[in-house]
Amino acid sequence: MNLLPRPVSYVDGGRLCAYQGWETVLVDGPPGGYRLLSSDDGVLIEAHDAAGEMNALQTLRQLLGAQAFRAAGEKPAVIPACEIVDHPRFQWRGVMLDVARHFLPKREVLRYVELLSVHKLNVLHLHLTDDQGWRFESRRYPKLTEVGSWRSDSRFGDRRSAGMAGRPHGGFYTQDDLREIVEYARQRHIVVIPEIDIPGHSQAAIAAYPELGVHGGDVWTDWGINERVLNTEESTVDFYRNVFDELMEVFPGEFIGLGGDEAPGHEGELVRAVARHIVRSGRRPYAWDEVLESGPLPVGTIVASWRGVEPGITALREGHDVVMCPEEHVYLDYRQSESLDEPIPVGTVTTLEDVYAWDPVPAGLTGEEPGRLLGAQANIWTEHLDSARRVDYAAFPRLAAFAEVMWSPAEKDPAFVQRLAEHHLPRLDALGVEYRPLNGPLPWQKLPGVPGFPR
Questions:
Q1: Reduced to 3 states, what is the DSSP secondary structure of residue 393?
Q2: Catalytic positions
Q3: Residues 141 and 211: beta-carbon distance below 8 Å
Q4: Vertex 175, ends 169 and 178: CA angle to 5°?
Q5: Is 158 helix (H, G, I), strand (E, B) or coil?
């Protein structure tokens, strides 16, 4: 059972029991799975592992009602007498948060870690660098943040418009900030994957160290694909080996993101060289699906399939593990309706119902592919999301639908939207999440007159 309660097996006719605490016992079972038993004797949790216990506690919190999601105030004292046996469908249940285009302060990243935990999501992919900003403190190369962490202006709306915000934008995380985020996430059984994007989306680094690039230039103030990329000199490869060494000291997890997307030209050897360095360091490279076109990849490379599902199918057949994140289904910055009230409408319409209807397992797989489908992630790009309030609007409640897809069996529940409205939106209210109402944006969530690029 994920975040939205479904019918459960009640022990004693659905009677309510006083809630005083729980006891946890570790047992065999699927990773992240648990059994929760509530009776007059208290709450018993049988979990496969510590992550399973955390998932059970989130379910217990749900059973206590929306008031249990408030930071203070009177807490409910009773829960249904029930037995719930549950486990996730996918082991990789992720969200990519772009903090490069628009910086989110550390407190907001920690808040998103908490929101992922509430929704039983367990991977946070941080997009730390791009043309518009460098957010990772490098002690070896200080100009990456001195120069690359801020830009003089930002496009306000789609790049085909003439509008600019008219103010600088910037920020970065110190290594201590990022270690704190990693530890905060670890305590909630969430893996944080850092991404430094190469060889494209690198204008902020080139602005700081012009010798890295082909054409030079300042930190970019526009959106879209930038034709300026890293050069392939051995000195550039050495530079990034050093940067990734620093990154891997801060992020101890197995997976390290290196980008590889939307890079005009043929710079694949740079990506492969850094990927080999990551593997030699005992980690696994994680890259966007364009890397399949750059030549042979090191064993262990994980491919994020964003340009539809076909690249993911190709990667599976070539023996790579895959995370599905096709833009037409799980890009949460894409507009949520055809209405002109949608703020800065970009991309295709991706409704709440569309996200819930999606199945991460594409047709055409035989089950005999040498690679593994690990799961999926939803992507939140922030070109047009310049604050935590705007990120909330874009992400929720669609992220709740995505979490349900990642946890629950493939069969869809026709009562999903009703359950969401009755049970889960009050929890988001209690948590202070400024989500998009089901009937459209509130007046202050609109941005009239700011052009987007719907398609």
A1: helix
A2: 130, 201, 262
A3: no
A4: 80
A5: coil
| Number of C-beta neighbours around residue 425 at 10 A | 18
Is residue 399 within 8 A of residue 332, CB to CB? The reply is yes
- What does each C-alpha distance from 311 to 293, 308, 322, 326 come to in angstroms? 10, 7, 9, 10
Query: How far apart, in whole angstroms, are the C-alpha atoms of residue 399 and residue 379?
Result: 10
Four-CA torsion 286, 335, 148, 213, nearest 10 degrees: 60
CA atoms within 13 A on the CB side of 68: 17
Cα torsion for 130, 135, 137, 141, to the nearest 10°?
30
**367 φ/ψ angles, rounded to the nearest 5 degrees:** 90, -5
Please check whether residue 361 is in contact with residue 373, taking contact to mean a CB–CB distance below 8 angstroms: yes
Pairing mode, strands 22-26 and 42-47: parallel
Could you tell me if 134 and 100 are in contact, meaning their C-beta atoms sit under 8 angstroms apart?
yes
For residue 271 the two structure tokens come to 């990506």
Encoded tokens for 241: 């080996």
Is pTM beyond 0.85? Reply is yes
DSSP 189: T
Could you count the other beta carbons within 10 Å of the beta carbon of residue 368?
A: 7
Spatial CA neighbour of 192 closest among 260, 244, 252: 252
Phi, psi of 57 (to 5 degrees): -65, -35
Residue matched to tokens 């990034």: 240
Alpha-carbon distance of 110 to 116, in angstroms, equals: 10
CA distance to 156, 196, 224, 245, 260, per residue, from 218 (Å):
18, 18, 16, 26, 21
Tokens for 246, please give them: 């620093």
Calculate the average pLDDT of the chain.
Answer: 94
Q: What is the C-alpha to C-alpha distance for residues 428 and 437, in angstroms, rounded to an integer?
A: 11
Q: Which residues, 6+ apart, have CB-to-CB distance to 83 below 8 Å?
A: 8, 9, 10, 11, 35, 36, 37, 38
The rounded radius of gyration (Å) of the Cα atoms in the chain is: 22
Instruction: Judge contact between 150 and 170, C-beta under 8 A.
Output: yes
> Both tokens of residue 322?
């895959």
Name the nearest CA neighbour of 174 among 129, 125, 134, 138.
Answer: 138
SS3 123: strand
Whole-angstrom distance, CA of residue 366 vs CA of residue 204: 43
Tell me, rounded to whole angstroms, the distance of Cα 136 from its chain centroid: 18
pLDDT range class, residue 7, cuts 50, 70, 90: very low
What are the pLDDT digits (tens) for 183-218? 999 999 999 999 999 999 999 999 999 999 998 999
pLDDT above 70: residue 403: yes
Interstrand relation of 133-134 and 129-130 (parallel, antiparallel or unpaired):
antiparallel
